[in-house]
Amino acid sequence: MPISLDEVRHVARLARLELDEAEVLALQGELNALLGHFADIQGIDARGIEPQSHAVSLQNVWAEDSPLPSMPRSEALRNSALTRAGLFVVPTIIED
Amino acid sequence: MITRLSAAEIAREIAARKVSAVEVAQACLGRIASLDEGYGCFLKVDADQTLAQARAAQAKIDSGEAGPLAGVPVAVKDNLSTEGLETTCASKILKGYVPPYDATVVSRLKAGGMPILGKTNLDEFAMGTSTENSAFQVTRNPWDPTRSPGGSSGGSAAAVCAEMAPLGLGSDTGGSIRQPAALCGVVGFKPTYGRCSRYGLVAFASSLDQIGPLARTVEDAALLAEVVTGHDPRDSTSLPDSTIRSDGLKKSSLKGVRFALPKELFSDSNEPGVLEQVQAAIETLRREGAAFGEVSMPSIVYGVTTYYIIAPAEASSNLARFDGVRYGPRAEEGAEHVGVVERTRAEGFGHEVKARIMIGTYALSAGYYDAYYLRAQQVRSRMRREMDAVFQGCDAILSPTSPVVAFKIGELSKDPLALKLLDYCTIPANLGGNPGVSLNCGFSGGLPVGLQLVGPAMADERLLQIAYSVEQALPEAHRRPPVP
Fold first, then answer.
1. Separation of alpha carbons B269 and B387, rounded Å
2. Does residue B139 contact residue B158 with C-beta atoms inside 8 Å?
3. Which residues, 6 or more positions from B222, have their beta carbon under 8 angstroms from its beta carbon?
4. Cβ contact, residue pair A52, B333, below 8 Å
5. Where are the domains of chain B?
6. Do A93 and B384 touch (CB under 8 A)?
7. Could you give phi then psi for residue B53, rounded to 5 degrees?
8. For residues B482 and B344, what is the distance between their CA atoms, to the nearest angstrom?
9. Interface of A with B in 12-31 (CB under 8 A)
């Protein structure tokens, strides 16, 4: 089933993307073209095939739980558009 | 002219004291200054930093503690973090971002005395195959500046092709090293997943991304691979004992080397000129003693779908970090949290990145996960099994790298799906984690045609040896582009 304009807006909200109406329309067309192509794997008999999420066989790679020198705070903050008192400033999430 | 030499030759000249690391860096910087306006390979060049690194390299060489490629400079794709040098991923959302640390591959270049010439253009966040999706500039193919160099590592490939840099680093998620190598007529090598640390590579699709070299010869690609690969505790997918050794490369015949030819990669989806050149190369290699057998890997036809579900799904998660708080420009203050994040991302990401985030979010969303993401992972599993079976009977899979030669800039950018469908030859190696290399096998209409070899996982050295022998047998492997 093709994606509706409302579904495009819903997915954009999930993805934290503000879209204008022209973009919603353009993306609806592009997503439907891609999903149309994706139909080819729906017919495959996938029973009994383990899904593979990764190409390496490594499992449970743990790091030693020991402190290492970290980056100076000023370096970590340097690229932020907005900092105060040695901290990142985030938009208000909880009102007083 | 020093810039015309291979990396191995430059290293020998430096070791013999015929030229200094600083002179080599100056020669490359001079060529970039005079040529790059016409090609748009570099997003950022900082000559002072490059020359300081070249002086440090020369000091190491003089004290006898230098690595094999000391003094040979490298062009670095702009999705690899470089301390003190702007790293943008060709995206407005990282405009002005100066990383406080080096990617592991960059640390290794520096430790090996290899100066960084600059940061090269790419499709935004490496999402594309034409280098047209950069937020900042278009890169042009040295064989014909009206055409694309391929992508997404198009800046590094074109810089190496036009002899602005002897070596380049790229990243390959679905073919982004091998395809631009093919379209520019140079060598591109994607190592086995896990052999090259991804620490400091801005993540696109973490289960597929792998860093690797672009070079003008297989030997150079192998030499650079040895410098940048190896275990890294900072990347939890880094394999133990993963350094790729280059010292075993030797001129040896192809007698007894067995190539599999998957019929799905030789279909009429390829341009006739591409098929002709690859078939002619096969005949040449057969005369050199190589054996060929046709095989079938039915899942290859589902590769594009599988890739364009898995990669955007991973990207939609990886790119969630770009919220304007820790780096990059931030939309105006005052609004509530979600609004600021949504607007920052709307202003910062280009259209193709938004489209891929959208498709990935959709494929992972409630109600669609099983139909898309889970199913794609099952196809990935099946493809891996088919490849493993093929490798029981051959040393490498041989095919075209790209079904087309370099296309006109703008020709395919209006049809995003058509452009994606061109990736089917390179995608299987990413889904399986296999090593793959592309080298030039001939020309169609004056444009390079790439030959791809894919090997079993961890058989990188063997694959490079085979590619080296193939390169020796193919007379067109090293033709120069019409660049002054």
1. 21
2. yes
3. B189, B244, B246, B249, B464, B468
4. no
5. 1-484
6. no
7. -65, -35
8. 43
9. 12-19, 23, 26-27, 30-31
Which positions of B are catalytic?
77, 152, 176
Which residue is listed with tokens 């960084």? B116
Q: Which residue of A has its CA nearest to B326?
A: A80
Cβ <8 Å between B358 and A12: yes
Q: Which ipTM did the prediction report? A: 0.95
Q: What are the structure tokens assigned to B311, written together?
A: 């990669």
Cα–Cα dist B178/B425, whole Å: 10
- Tokens for B140, please give them: 């042009």
Give tens-digit pLDDT for B321-364. Answer: 999 999 999 987 666 888 999 999 999 999 999 999 999 999 99
> Can you give the pLDDT at residue B416?
86
Whether pLDDT at B460 is above 90 = yes
Please give the pLDDT value at position A55. Answer: 82
Q: Report residue B261: phi and psi, to 5°.
A: -115, 100
Residue B443 pairs in a beta bridge with B448
Dist. CA B134–CA B124, nearest whole Å? 5
Average pLDDT over residues B388-392: 97
Nearest chain B residue to A41 by CA: give it: B302
- Name the residue in chain B with its Cα closest to that of A25: B355
Domain B1-484: homologous superfamily in CATH: Amidase signature (AS) domain (3.90.1300.10)
Q: What is the pLDDT of residues B179-223, one digit of tens each?
A: 999 999 999 999 999 999 999 999 999 999 999 999 999 999 999
**Where do the domains of chain A lie, and which CATH numbers do they carry?**
5-41 (1.10.20)
Q: How far apart (Å, rounded) are the C-alpha atoms in residues B192 and B188?
A: 13
- pLDDT for B379 equals 95
Taking CA atoms, B246 is separated from B189, B369, B451, B461, B462, in Å, by: 13, 43, 21, 7, 10
